[in-house]
Amino acid sequence: MERVTESGAAPPALGIGMVGYAFMGAAHSQGWRTAGRVFDLPLRPVLAAVAGRDADAVRAAARRHGWAAAETDWRALIARDDVQLVDICTPGDSHAEIAIAALEAGKHVLCEKPLANSVAEAEAMTAAAEAAAARGRIAMVGFNYRRVPALAYARGLVAEGRLGALRHVRVTYLQDWLVDPDFPLTWRLEREHAGSGALGDLGAHAVDLAQYLAGEPLVGVSALTETFVRERPLLAGAAAGLSAGPAGGTRGRVTVDDAALFTGRLASGALASFEATRMAAGRKNALRLEVNGERGSLAFDLERLNELSFHDHTEPAVTAGFRRVLVTEPGHPYLEGWWPPGHALGYEHTFAHQARDLVHAVATGTAPAPSFADGLQVQRVLAAVEESARNAAVYTPVLPSLPVSPVSR
Ligand SMILES: NC(=O)c1ccc[n+]([C@@H]2O[C@H](COP(=O)([O-])OP(=O)(O)OC[C@H]3O[C@@H](n4cnc5c(N)ncnc54)[C@H](O)[C@@H]3O)[C@@H](O)[C@H]2O)c1
Questions:
Q1: pLDDT digits (tens, 9 = 90+) for 17-26
Q2: GFO/IDH/MocA-like oxidoreductase domain location, by residue (predicted)?
Q3: CB of 351 closer than 6 A to ligand 1?
Q4: What domain range is 353 assigned to?
Q5: Tens digit of each residue's pLDDT (9 = 90 or more) over 367-394
Q6: Which is it for the CA torsion 213, 214, 219, 225, positive or negative?
Q7: Does 1 reside within a domain?
């Protein structure tokens, strides 16, 4: 059942065409299927077509995830009249080509993070997005963790001044799927496909969140990166990025980092620290952060994503302390469409929230956040991290650092 307008009619359709149908493809499908049923949207997302390279596999994915049609070439997907928005869920090496072609063809675009594999690609994509914006087309990058209600609420607290001037932002993003030295050489371990390793995969989220929460860019970084396991078994066949596929006998070279550790300075002078690794045994998807300001602090752990810890340092010391805010009230961001208070949300809901915000941006013609310019800013930070790591962790400016756009709601 689709939501209907007050007059009883279904809102006009917004045809979605998605490229790539594995991990993010499944998550985005869930978001597109759900958003219009939970939220009152001005346009109705229609899952028009999905594209992949293998005809049988893409047809099976279309059936499983609810897409009306399947294409074996993303160019054919972009050319379809029933596709108005192209959703890019492929590895980074194809983001620039697909996004620029889609924008030039007059489509709106959602592109998974990191925006690209290099600053040059991200610059070209941002230029294409700016040209398309002049023609009323919207381009957004998929930093979905901004859409965790507790983190959107946290941003509101910082913006209201509840933390005062910021002193520290620290973000760690830890996974452990590379601890096994026999985990095969998937695309995420090859620079030509992924751009970088834990840095672009996890560090990109950490950097975007730090800049989003603080509302200001990083202006310089000092970094260490390491590749602990330098050779891994070659894949015998194609395998999705996070799942180990069949490995042959020979090994190939890992060309990205396994871990990145860096400090940074925000524009206001606040200090930030980051750790991104896929080598933290026992940590599955441990995204944790803390922000300290002169008036208070907040802390978040993705494993308890319905909760935000908040400390108001202006309260009397005898009763002050971190309080656990259960971010499930109707007045909290994104909660208006969901369940009664305390009936918790999860990871998948961030993709419905992302779809909701993007549909509003398309319908109202407003610039979305995070924009391609925000994705470019993150890309410049990642490039500065790699440059610093190559130069014995010397402090390296992020040039030029761009303003960070607030959430578009
Ligand atoms: N937002 C998040 O939390 C999050 C999480 C995981 C991955 N990602 C990002 O999403 C993107 C995809 O990652 P994933 O985990 O879904 O990878 P994946 O390996 O699970 O899926 C990649 C898909 O892209 C397809 N593909 C690859 N090259 C293609 C091409 N040229 N044309 C058409 N299809 C092609 C593959 O067949 C597969 O369907 C990456 O940019 C990644 O960094 C984001």
A1: 999 999 999 9
A2: 153-298
A3: no
A4: 148-397
A5: 999 999 999 999 999 999 999 999 999 9
A6: negative
A7: no
